[in-house]
Amino acid sequence: MNRVEVRNLQVSYGNKTVLAVEHASFERGRFYGIVGPSGAGKSTLLRVINLLEKPASGSLQLFGDETDLTSLSYSKGLPLQRKMGFVAQKPSMFHASVYENVSLGLRYRKREKAEIQMLVQEALDLVELSHLADQRANTLSGGEAQRIALARALVIKPKLLLLDEPTASLDPYNISIFERVIQTFHRQTNTTVLMITHNLPQARRLAQTCLFVNKGRIVEWADTDAFFNRPACIELQDFVSGRMIC
Ligand SMILES: Nc1ncnc2c1ncn2[C@@H]1O[C@H](COP(=O)(O)OP(=O)(O)OP(=O)(O)O)[C@@H](O)[C@H]1O
């Protein structure tokens, strides 16, 4: 019950299997970094966990009962999806104010107006953008929009936070704010975080455990220090040393 687990996960396009994970288990409250070459299957793994994509086979346990992902209906998936926050590489904003964008998940959950106001204010303070509450979201800079996307994911207090290269297109200033916010949030809550990143120093800074995904498989999994300083498999040695370039 105290973990997120996937079993017998397989995703294929045509006759190409892009993800095959026999078993992966993520502890409550732990911060995981997911790294690997381009096209390895990292985003596919997060999309399947976030129920954005149906695998050919596989089950998910999300701090509770195990669910068969192949037969999951919309109504059974909704309560699971509501335990998760997701931030993608590029923020997609609704044509509305920043406040309305951040409050959307809370309104779906039918929270009281006063509670919504309090939680949105808290989330905007966390990303240091409360002064933009009334601004139209489509007028934000890229860095601001990504911090608002983070506020929108955190405001619902997710049990599982999924981050897919969230700082890939940010400048150093916004990267440092983004990292500080997720670190603070992670420290203050018992949230499990899965973060894909191509920025290896970032994985070292933030993650407690790292996973190396290559050719659709999780090929190595270790505490961050051992992962980078004592990688066991040759592919990971090549990857962390920069010898693996694709
Ligand atoms: N809808 C799709 N149809 C066909 N192939 C797909 C589809 N989605 C993903 N793929 C393929 O699946 C493989 C894994 O993609 P995925 O996006 O998970 O990789 P990734 O490790 O996240 O890569 P990157 O680091 O470049 O984002 C890639 O070869 C990709 O081309």
TrEMBL record:
<protein>
    <submittedName>
        <fullName>Phosphate ABC transporter ATP-binding protein</fullName>
    </submittedName>
</protein>
<dbReference type="InterPro" id="IPR005670">
    <property type="entry name" value="PstB-like"/>
</dbReference>
<dbReference type="GO" id="GO:0016887">
    <property type="term" value="F:ATP hydrolysis activity"/>
</dbReference>
<dbReference type="GO" id="GO:0035435">
    <property type="term" value="P:phosphate ion transmembrane transport"/>
</dbReference>
<dbReference type="GO" id="GO:0016020">
    <property type="term" value="C:membrane"/>
</dbReference>
<dbReference type="GO" id="GO:0005315">
    <property type="term" value="F:phosphate transmembrane transporter activity"/>
</dbReference>
<keyword id="KW-0547">Nucleotide-binding</keyword>
<keyword id="KW-0813">Transport</keyword>
<dbReference type="InterPro" id="IPR003439">
    <property type="entry name" value="ABC_transporter-like_ATP-bd"/>
</dbReference>
<dbReference type="Pfam" id="PF00005">
    <property type="entry name" value="ABC_tran"/>
</dbReference>
<keyword id="KW-0067">ATP-binding</keyword>
<feature type="domain" description="ABC transporter">
    <location>
        <begin position="4"/>
        <end position="240"/>
    </location>
</feature>
<dbReference type="InterPro" id="IPR017871">
    <property type="entry name" value="ABC_transporter-like_CS"/>
</dbReference>
<dbReference type="InterPro" id="IPR003593">
    <property type="entry name" value="AAA+_ATPase"/>
</dbReference>
<dbReference type="GO" id="GO:0005524">
    <property type="term" value="F:ATP binding"/>
</dbReference>
<dbReference type="InterPro" id="IPR027417">
    <property type="entry name" value="P-loop_NTPase"/>
</dbReference>
